[in-house]
Amino acid sequence: MWISSGSYEKAIAVTGDRGPQIAADWLLSHCNDSTLDQKTCQEYILYLCPVGPLQKQLADYFEKTRVQCGWNGAHAYFPHITLCHFFKAEDSKIPYLTKALNKLQEKLLKAPGHLELEFFSQVNFIGLLVQKCYYDFLEEIVADYAEEIRKVGVTMDPRRQQLHMTLAYQYSKDQHERLLRYAKEIDLNSDVKWEFRLYSRDPRAGECEVREVTRSYSSNNEDELELVEGDHVLADPIELSNSKNGWCKGISTLTGSVGMFRIGCTMRTSETSTWTLHKSLMVVPATNMYNGLSEGDYDNLWVGEQDDIYNKLLKNKKSEENQNIPREPRCLFVMRHGERCDFALGRDWVDSCFNSAGRYSRINLNLPKNMLKRKNYLDFIKDCPLTEVGKLQARLTGEGLRDASVNLSHLYVSPALRCIQTAHEIVTALGLNLKICIEPSLFEWLGWYQLGLPIWFTPDELIDHGYAVDRNYISYMVPTQLYLDETVEHFYSRCADFTRYILKKHEHEDVCNILIVGHAGSLDVCTRQLLGKAPRSVGGFHEILPYVPCCSMCCCVEDPLTKKWRMKEPPVPPITHVANKKYNWKTLI
Questions:
Q1: What is the pLDDT of residues 352-410, one digit of tens each?
Q2: Is 577 a catalytic residue?
Q3: Which residue among 24, 280, 335, 378 sits deepest, i.e. has the most Cβ atoms within 10 Å of its Cβ?
Q4: Of 3.30.70.920, 3.90.1140.10, 3.30.1300.10, 3.30.420.40, which CATH number belongs to 32-201+274-279?
Q5: Which Gene3D superfamilies match (predicted)?
């Protein structure tokens, strides 16, 4: 398949410049796209988006009103504040758009306090208005961005009207009071952080209704679209409403193919579900910029009550003038946890080990002799402990690190109990007085948790059980920022962002050996982009997992001069042992 330079640039733009592999995958899926070689520009827009408990309330409001009041214009988007009008840019200008946004980072760290919103409603509109001081701040930021991209020939018009967040519009008058009542249930004092985001969309999306494929369909005729569950179809809203046979002409966003599709296999969804996120920067109030520990109870981070989580980005920030080269190269170790109870004894192990009152019985010597106490024993189903063999695996790994004279300086661990127990065994074997920093952003791919996240032990509960957890550590993410609709691509970004963050945080230390204890995928997602490689596809990600057994470890080392990272052989050999199946003495009868 011959690819023109213009087509490749288009693929880079449409996929958000996330790497050549993702762009190549997009090109392969669009081999029958008749517009592939057409010179069309993506449309771009700047949004200010809420993150955290307030965002959850807003999303719940959108879903509730869609179900109970019917579709209105606000449902075409996720909760946001629009900062400019859509603007077009040639595909070759994508790197300049993101670089221009990066230049705003320093200003975004000096926001004027917390953004306050107030309700506003009139006939056929319900929304939240932005306070004046923040309006001026955002207006200046957007103007700076417009001026920066103008240098490369891209024109953008800032929004000239009052900045606001739309909750509902384009609805029938009889729904106004009901929509307003639901809106008033939103607690505007809920915790929230804001992200400054650059999105792009297919220019055709603004003129079409977006339909999500809910049921697959195999085409029987050449003019029919092959429908794949999860794909999105762009269709003319007038043609949809005038359809008499349940069929309509549409465009598949997955393949770019045009054809007739069965309307009954799709449902209307938000336009923004087809958009591409290019860059996201945090907006941090200037009052949050200080050194030292955060005030308040660290356990609040685990229930979404921490008022100031983003100050962690600036905690103990080192002077940029300190450019001393470390005495030895920095090393990053990433390892998987040890053997877990459910994988060793089956997913019904909780039913076999606990009675209805929650009393634990050790039915297998590989199970813990004493089970940790927790509020609900059923929470072990999603957050299981290590087996005794798993603890041994971790202890042997720790002894291997000790024998290799590895001196760990920092320990970051997924909140999963099996990871915390693995880290505990390693530190014990090393004989180090090193505390465990629990980091939610290191938890495994959320695509496996569609029914909800596990209920993890809090730091205080773990300390009570004898684990050396750092109560004062301010995590990079909090559990409320983990979204169950996460794609594999977003999973790579989540873990790569944290890896870059800790490496930046510890870049001026003379001795820097960081250990991350996570999951099977952690060895790849925490290091792949650090090594200059693109994230794997969904299939590629799943292919590598069987090759990462319990307590596997990888090691990345930095060249002190070039600052480039490479992977090298780990300092500890692997652990290999045969499986020991469950024994039933009755087979001898």
A1: 999 988 999 999 999 999 999 999 999 999 999 999 999 999 999 999 999 999 999 99
A2: no
A3: 335
A4: 3.90.1140.10
A5: Cyclic phosphodiesterase (3.90.1140.10), Phosphoglycerate mutase-like (3.40.50.1240), SH3 Domains (2.30.30.40)
